Amino acid sequence: MPIYTKQEIAFALNEKVNAFNNYILPMSKEQFEVTPGGKWSAGQNLYHLILAIKPLQLAYSLPKFILKTMFGKANRPSKTYDELVAKYKKKLLEGGRASAPFVPPAISFEQKDALIKKYVQHKERLSRKIEKQNEEDLDRYILPHPLLGKLTLREMLFFTVHHNEHHLELLKSRTT
Fold this sequence. Notes:
Elements: H1 6-24, H2 29-33, H3 42-59, H4 64-71, H5 81-93, H6 112-131, H7 135-140, E1 142-145, E2 149-152, H8 153-175
Antiparallel strand pairs: 1-2
Helix pairs in contact: 1-6, 1-8, 3-6, 3-8, 5-8
C-alpha cells in the first residue's frame, strides 16, 4: 500500500507500532534482555523507538512560524516513502548509527509492559498531531534528522513509519 497522505501515514504508523509491540509482548525475560553480539536487546530497541518518536510530538505542535524560524522551509519537493527509505538504508550501509541522545540504556524485563504502554501513548499523541496538519505544510516545513539531515515534515513521518519496521526486522532476523 502506498503511503503519502496524512491519513495513510497515520494508518501505517499505527500498523507498524502495533506490529512491533505485538512481536515483543510475548517475549520471555531472556528474549527481551538478550544482547546478541553486543547488539541492542528488544527492550533497548523499544526504548530507542520511544526516544525517536517523543520529540516529534513537540515538533508537530509548534506554530509553523517557529518551525520556519528555527529550521527554515523546504527548497525541494518531499521525497516519496520509498525514496526516503532508500536514503536511510544507504546511510546505514555507510556506517550511520544512532546518535548519543537516541542510544538506549540497559532495559530490564520488568520495564517491558510500562514501555509498551508508553510507546502506544506516544504513537497516539503523534497520530493526533498528524491529523491536525495541513497536507501542504507537510511538504513546506523541515525538521533536522541526526542521520538524514533536513527532512520535510512528511519525510520525517515516513522515516518514523519505516523506523519501526526496520527495528522489528532487526529483531526478527535474530530468531530466524
